[in-house]
């Protein structure tokens, strides 16, 4: 583990422990079963979370990924799982039991909302969606049975910024744990554990892998929390990540900083274009110089990230028309890929949320989420421009 080098060096060299026949790149170990010299060793391995004994509880290649992300997020340990939603559900279930209550930021990924409302509620886990931009609001909603504050910053899709340090401070005062979804940032741009959060979850499907060919999740936290999640939730529910996908994410992470730099640069150019377009009402982007939470952004984020959301000056028909006229930009549910991806949250990623609640979350029918990719910024903007021109003609604006 290298701790005295820069982050850009760490993402390449940290936890490169496999040196089979001098190979620089880690091996893919497909083995599910492992051999033991005697029954005592085998019995010991089943009790010790850090020892690999059966594929559902861990694997040599995924272990390298776990060590890598733990080192980058400055965590004691990490767990690699089968999806971002597996990471979120495992993290929440590890801290909550029947009768407990969780405070949740009011605008967040639709899958997290669905998990809490449709699944966690069946096990008598209570939740409240609140505005976490104000720590007083958080304090007012803490109940005797509150155990966790779950936040996502920047949020999906309205890019609300939450002050991780201030929220963690409130949580500590009330003996609560803070779980944070760091998917939009990656450890290159934001390291929540250094600001007081307890557990980080990632959809590694997005920027960490970065190539749109793996579904995976990562959880970072204390040795105790990660051991419990590995043994009692991931292992028992079978939410493990396979070796091949772990290898691909390890490969993806090596280019994380160069990709994120280009993603951010392109997003800034797209933001400048959108904010001056007459058919655009509001643009949500952490790189906005006039962002209301600029101070918090500067404190906790190294750069803007590359998701830009905007409201078209019209209804959902107009929003959908814009998407349908694009030629280069792809309509898709994901984000963080090399390709620029666009989607309509109200009818796609967040369609599980009832319309009245969508409005409360500021998620209108005219909102569009753009994950700015790695293409030439000029080409992304030209594509948006030709689509806006067609919408203008169609709707005679
Ligand atoms: C912020 C955020 N968290 C979690 C997830 C879920 O990740 P996955 O699709 O890997 O389960 C997503 C998916 O889009 C997301 O945007």
Automatic annotation (TrEMBL):
Q: Does the keyword Transferase apply?
A: yes
| Listed EC numbers | 4.4.1.2
Gene3D superfamilies given in the database record: Aspartate Aminotransferase, domain 1 (3.90.1150.10), Type I PLP-dependent aspartate aminotransferase-like (Major domain) (3.40.640.10)
GO cellular component terms, alphabetically, are: cytoplasm
Cofactor field: pyridoxal 5'-phosphate
InterPro entries per the UniProt record, alphabetical? Cys/Met-Metab_PyrdxlP-dep_enz (IPR000277), Cys_met_metab_PP (IPR054542), PyrdxlP-dep_Trfase (IPR015424), PyrdxlP-dep_Trfase_major (IPR015421), PyrdxlP-dep_Trfase_small (IPR015422)
Name of the top EC class for this enzyme: lyase
Q: Which UniProt keywords apply?
A: Aminotransferase, Pyridoxal phosphate, Transferase
Task: Tell me a Gene Ontology molecular-function term this record carries.
Answer: homocysteine desulfhydrase activity
Reaction(s) this enzyme catalyzes, per UniProt: L-homocysteine + H2O = 2-oxobutanoate + hydrogen sulfide + NH4(+) + H(+); L-methionine + H2O = methanethiol + 2-oxobutanoate + NH4(+)
Database matches in Pfam families: Cys_Met_Meta_PP (PF01053)
Which biological process terms from the Gene Ontology are attached to this UniProt entry? methionine biosynthetic process; transsulfuration
Give all N6-(pyridoxal phosphate)lysine modified positions: 206
- Tell me the protein family, please: Belongs to the trans-sulfuration enzymes family.
Q: What is this protein called?
A: homocysteine desulfhydrase
Q: Which organism is it from?
A: Nosocomiicoccus massiliensis
């Amino acid at each position: 583990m290298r701790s005295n080098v820069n982050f850009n060096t760490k993402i390449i060299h940290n936890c490169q422990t496999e040196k089979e026949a001098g190979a620089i790149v880690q091996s893919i170990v497909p083995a599910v079963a492992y051999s033991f010299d005697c029954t005592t060793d085998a019995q010991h391995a089943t009790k010790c979370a850090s020892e690999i004994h059966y594929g559902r509880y861990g694997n040599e290649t995924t272990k390298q990924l776990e060590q890598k992300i733990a080192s980058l997020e400055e965590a004691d340990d990490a767990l690699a799982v089968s999806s971002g939603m597996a990471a979120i559900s495992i993290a929440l279930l590890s801290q909550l039991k029947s009768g407990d209550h969780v405070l949740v930021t009011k605008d967040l990924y639709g899958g997290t909302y669905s998990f809490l409302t449709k699944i966690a509620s069946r096990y008598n886990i209570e939740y409240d969606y609140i505005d976490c931009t104000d720590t007083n609001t958080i304090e007012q909603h803490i109940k005797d049975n509150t155990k966790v504050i779950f936040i996502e910053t920047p949020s999906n899709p309205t890019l609300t910024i939450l002050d991780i340090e201030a929220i963690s401070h409130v949580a500590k005062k009330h003996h609560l744990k803070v779980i944070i979804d760091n998917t939009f940032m990656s450890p290159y741009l934001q390291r929540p554990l250094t600001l007081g959060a307890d557990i980080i979850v990632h959809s590694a499907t997005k920027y960490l892998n970065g190539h749109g060919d793996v579904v995976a999740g990562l959880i970072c936290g204390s040795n105790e929390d990660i051991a419990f999640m590995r043994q009692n939730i991931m292992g028992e529910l079978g939410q493990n990540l396979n070796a091949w996908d772990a290898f691909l994410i390890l490969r993806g992470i090596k280019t994380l900083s160069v990709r994120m730099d280009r993603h951010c640069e392109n997003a800034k150019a797209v933001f400048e274009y959108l904010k001056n377009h007459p058919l655009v009402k509001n643009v949500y982007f952490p790189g906005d110089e006039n962002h209301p939470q600029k101070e918090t952004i500067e404190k906790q984020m190294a750069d803007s990230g590359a998701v830009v959301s905007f409201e078209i000056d019209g209804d959902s028909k107009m929003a959908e028309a814009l998407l349908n006229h694009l030629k280069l930009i792809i309509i898709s549910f994901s984000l963080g890929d090399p390709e620029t991806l666009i989607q309509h949250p109200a009818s796609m990623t967040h369609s599980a949320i009832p319309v009245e609640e969508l409005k409360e979350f500021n998620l209108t029918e005219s909102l569009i989420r753009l994950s700015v990719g790695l293409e030439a910024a000029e080409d992304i903007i030209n594509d948006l421009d030709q689509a806006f021109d067609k919408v203008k003609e169609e709707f005679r604006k």
